[in-house]
Amino acid sequence: MAAPAGGAWVTRDEAIMGTAIHVELWADDRRLGEAAAAAVMDEMHRIDRAMSPHKPASELSRINREAARHAVPLSDEMYALVERALAFSRLSGGAFDISYAAVGQLYDYRRRVRPGAAELERARALVGWQHLHLGPKARTLRFGLEGMRIDLGGFAKGHAVDRAAALLRRRGISSALVSAGGDSRVIGGRTVGGQESRPWSVAIRDPRRAGEVVAVLPLEDTSVSTSGDYERFFDDGAERVHHLIDPATGHSPQHVHSVTILADDGLTSEALSKAVFVLGIERGLALVATLPGVDAVVVDTRGRLHASAGLLQGLPAAGP
Questions:
Q1: How far is the C-alpha of 20 from the C-alpha of 131, rounded, in Å?
Q2: Is the pTM of this model over 0.90?
Q3: What is the second-level CATH architecture of the domain 59-143?
Q4: Which residues pair with 240 in a beta bridge?
Q5: What is the largest CA-CA distance in the chain?
Q6: 30-51 vs 156-170: helix axis angle to the nearest 10?
Q7: What are the boundaries of each domain within the chain?
Q8: Residue 189 in contact with residue 199, Cβ under 8 Å?
């Protein structure tokens, strides 16, 4: 039976891209809102089919199989993503590097497996964004080293929420939130009864206390990404082995617990959340300070908050 027309909040949740996908939106017509939410999920599935390293038929898997042997033609979407990834690698001095995958594939967090020293050293020799060669005329990618791999896990979800936000705007949605794991995008303010709007309240979770938050940010028309050492990890003796890997060392950085980035688009916020995590507080916030329209909140290993200049005044704390 068709849902009745009329303004309403529509929410939808699915597990896609190995993470929780959530969309909530206000629609003046419920049926149109439900169709828009379904279109977001369809787009998430499309991106997963193209960019998953675990699906043999994905474009990413084809690149990893063939690019060391010859230049691989890329779709326009993939070319643009790799081009942006290389730009973030240059910007961050290599702290963000999609070729980290040669090392990343050696970790299994469920089975508590990490590479030995010799294995890690061999894999580290295959990491280096400078060996990713884009061919702008033919729109191709070639690996400069046999055995290189790329992984868009630090990038694809930000791209996905950007695509979802653009899709919703084209459908006339002016109040919505789309999230893919730690990456979110808010459109407009949060409509209250279809009459007025107020900022969305986006919480930064406490990295060590389940269910607690360290700050709540009032946001409109903003992308926000959080990278934390609590997402995929195991504790191994004196340190936490987690999925955020320093491309230069192949190890998990230990100097912060989480990094949250606010930016105009999800690609920027997600890439910088990874880069700042690797760079650490001082160098990471120094990088953010050079980027107009970008802000950061870093939770250090003692649970203290460090914020960029744009947030230092009036960061709304929530809880101790």
A1: 33
A2: yes
A3: Orthogonal Bundle (1.10)
A4: 235
A5: 63
A6: 150
A7: 1-53+160-189, 59-143, 199-320
A8: yes
Long-range (24+ apart) CB contacts under 8 A made by 64-69 are: 64/101, 64/149, 64/150, 67/141, 67/142, 67/143, 67/148, 68/142, 68/143, 68/145, 68/146, 68/147, 68/148
- Cβ atoms within 10 Å of 293's Cβ, excluding its own: 11
**Is the domain defined by 199-320 classed in CATH 3.10.520.10?**
yes
The amino acid that residue 238 corresponds to is A
Per-residue pLDDT of the chain in tens (320 residues, 90 and over written 9) = 344 457 899 999 999 999 999 999 999 999 999 999 999 999 999 999 999 999 999 999 999 999 999 999 999 999 999 999 999 999 999 999 999 999 999 999 999 999 999 999 999 999 999 999 999 999 999 999 999 999 998 789 999 999 999 999 999 999 999 999 999 999 999 987 666 789 999 999 999 998 999 999 999 999 999 999 999 999 988 899 999 999 999 999 999 999 999 999 999 999 999 999 999 999 999 999 999 999 999 999 999 999 998 886 555 443 33
Burial bucket for residue 73 (CB in 10 Å: 0-12, 13-18, 19+): middle
